[in-house]
Here is the input.
Amino acid sequence: METPDSKRNNVTSKRLTIFLQTFGCQMNKLDSAIVESSLRDAGYQFVDNAKDADVVLMNTCSVRDHAEQRVMSHLGNLKHIKESRPDLVVAVIGCMAQRLGSELFKQSAVDIVCGPAQIAEIPRLITEALQEKKKAVAVTEKIRQVSPDAQLLERFEIEYSGDDTDIPGQAYVRAMHGCNKFCSYCVVPYVRGPETSRPPEAIIEQTKRLAQNGIKQITLLGQRINAYEYKAGDKTYCLADLLSMISENNGIEWIKFVTSYPSQKYFKEIMLAMANLPKVCRYLHIPAQSGSDQILKAMNRGYTSAEYLELLDTARQIVPDIAIAGDFIVGFPGETDDYFAQTVDLVKKARYKNSFIFKYSPRPGTVADKRLEDNIPQEIKERRNHELLKVQEEISRALAAEFTGQTVKVLVEGPSKKARLTAVSPQVYPGGFDPQHKVGGLQLIGRTAGDWIAVFNGTETLAGQFTNVKITKTTPLTLFGELV
Ligand code: 5AD
Ligand code: SF4
Here is the structure.
């Protein structure tokens, strides 16, 4: 097959280069990995800055305005690069592409706009842009209908999923597309389309292939992963079934899944699967968003804070050592001091391992944006964000401290940021690693099954492997220790 590479090889023997930048969630990281793998297959080479790239690909996020503003400012910078290098091709993919469509051409640097359901078209769109110099847009017209490109996307996903992973030994596997929940603040249903579950066989096949390629941990992805439901004949598969099928079928050793939505349906089954299947990690990311029933109602979440806490009780009864993480939005329209105090109260009761806390950001097209005034001043949002983080920090500190003296199993991700910044090259890092005295070497990071970050010294060759670490010291978010 003739590829851009082979064409180019005949003339200059230089491969065309791509700089790919990813914003936002794990779903975007997965899409980027799939796109990257398809483009490598087509002969492109990936580089780590825009300066000398032939193509710049930006995979974008629309969940908060801040994420969109960052992309806009990058597009502004690319305009300047393009003045001196008019041949540069700039492609915007992901949620902003779907949300804004051809409006993105107002940013003069942009050549290609491609939505999340059209990523299979990216290799062709890039080839055409390089050859013909004309702008192209590929997005879903009616985003709330099942995309006409769904089958093409599924084939693309099966072909290219998992070949490129950010972290050695780990891969994401999509279990579901889209979302049907329409939480009033959230843009996801408008950019990722309706909720659909992928067939279990496709997921199982993919995990088998990943295991053969040395992947040790997979994370199943879905906006509401616990709503996974696939009907085949008279059998209906839920997430618990999927977890047990993946457990049985292959060499994957750890299975995680995100993000769970607080609802009763299948919840016990999933918790029982976690309790009974040793490969399923005892980690649950289950956003509450608020502790006030009035705000939860305005958010269209469909549960009360008491019902939410009951779910956590159920989870802890079935899986006593489960690690639970949450998400919160502070400063939602109408959030009084009293309502916020109820959120603080819920965080204290929930005893999360960690919480992700966001300031409310109105998203165009959502019900909250259309019907509710963004009436909480920025300073109050900041203050509440800070206060909630403080409360969470104390809980995290106490939970982390319980690890002191324990030995934990971790999957090693690689050198820590600090090690990457200080080591000229891993091989010449002062002294090398002395396994007997467990000193020197590189500072590595790994994660436990409960998603705790562990920091310890070792050799870079451990990346992608399991190892045991004895914890000697802890901070709210990090366990420090040494290899055992
Ligand atoms: N403003 C602020 N945070 C938001 N999130 C989703 N939409 C918004 C918004 N409009 C947060 C929620 C969600 C996480 C991924 O992002 O907490 O769980
Ligand atoms: Fe957004 Fe709610 Fe769907 Fe999560 S469940 S993606 S917050 S609409």
Summary: The chain has a mean pLDDT of 92.
